[in-house]
Specification:
This protein is α/β, with parallel strands linked by helices. It is built from 10 helices and 7 strands. Strands 2-1-4-5-6-3-7 form a 7-stranded mixed β-sheet. Strand 4 (115-118), helix 4 and strand 5 (141-145) form a beta-alpha-beta unit.
Length: 285
């Protein structure tokens, strides 16, 4: 075969393979829904049409945090300056519920004005790629990471620092980053102490890690509820879902329920309500 024949044959083979190969998956359309989950393996966001969230009026004991985050989010939705937010504190205290409820509240007042994209902790290194896609789409978007923290030799926090504020391009103007964590500084104390004991300049090593939380303009602390607040949560659920039970009955049950779990929190209150509704044969909608 001549060189010309070989070239023609290779061209036909290449064309055939190209026809057989599936097209690269689309990143998705940020206007297909109001909420999405980021799938880093496929470099795309998946629409979530039925978001698992509570009504904002049902979140009790966190009124101050609610007002601060709601005002910040409304400013962002209007195109005004707003801050990235870190919601930190006790487990089950309503941090992630508040983010989802506020997103729902904003879109109820102004349908479609704001998108919410959840990114999983392990996918944080792909955050720059996600932000690039959101920048192109143009829609105002909150990127949300639940239970964000860093351990051991994990260095992905450095890319997060750059994305939040310090990168060359900076955070796209149509993006806000909200995160929840059980840790105020996103790193365990023993990890920070280890940095201090092994570094040539301990103060600088610790400062680098602590400075990650400084990139969040809002720090909102959440704490375990007292019994009065715990009861208020349960009472609001009972009224909202019209559960048929006397106050004397549910108070006694709620106390026992919290004692078996060793805590009083929004999560514990909601778990009790789910148990109660199941026993009463009521669907929670």
């Amino acid at each position: 075969m001549t060189d010309q024949d070989i070239t023609a044959l290779l061209t036909r083979i290449a064309d055939s393979l190209e026809r057989l190969a599936p097209p690269p998956p689309s990143a998705g359309n940020l206007h297909d829904a109001d909420a999405f989950v980021w799938h880093a393996d496929y470099n795309r966001f998946e629409p979530v049409h039925n978001v698992n969230r509570l009504d904002l009026s049902l979140l009790k004991g966190i009124e101050t945090q609610c007002k601060t985050l709601l005002d910040n989010t409304r400013n962002f939705a209007k195109g005004l300056p707003a801050n990235n937010a870190l919601l930190w504190g006790a487990r089950g205290s309503g941090k992630s519920s508040l983010v989802k409820a506020i997103h729902g509240e904003i879109n109820r007042d102004n349908p479609g004005i704001l998108a919410l994209i959840e990114i999983h902790r392990e996918d944080i290194p792909t955050l720059p790629a996600l932000l690039a896609l959101i920048r192109e789409e143009g829609r105002r978007t909150i990127v949300f990471c639940d239970d964000l923290s860093f351990d051991g030799d994990d260095t992905s926090y450095k890319s997060l620092k750059a994305v939040l504020e310090g990168g060359l391009e900076g955070r796209p103007e149509n993006v806000l980053f909200y995160a929840t964590s059980n840790r105020r500084h996103l790193m365990p104390r023993d990890m920070m102490e280890n940095e201090r004991s092994t570094a040539i300049n301990p103060s600088e090593a610790v400062e680098e890690k602590v400075s990650l939380s400084d990139r969040f303009g809002l720090w909102l602390g959440f704490h375990n509820s007292n019994q009065e607040t715990y009861f208020a949560m349960i009472e609001s659920y009972i009224k909202h879902y019209s559960l048929d039970i006397t106050e004397e009955e549910w108070r006694a049950q709620a106390i026992e329920w919290s004692m078996t779990r060793g805590a009083r929190s929004g999560r514990v209150a909601w778990q009790y309500i789910q148990d109660l509704a199941g026993r009463l044969g009521v669907t929670l909608k």
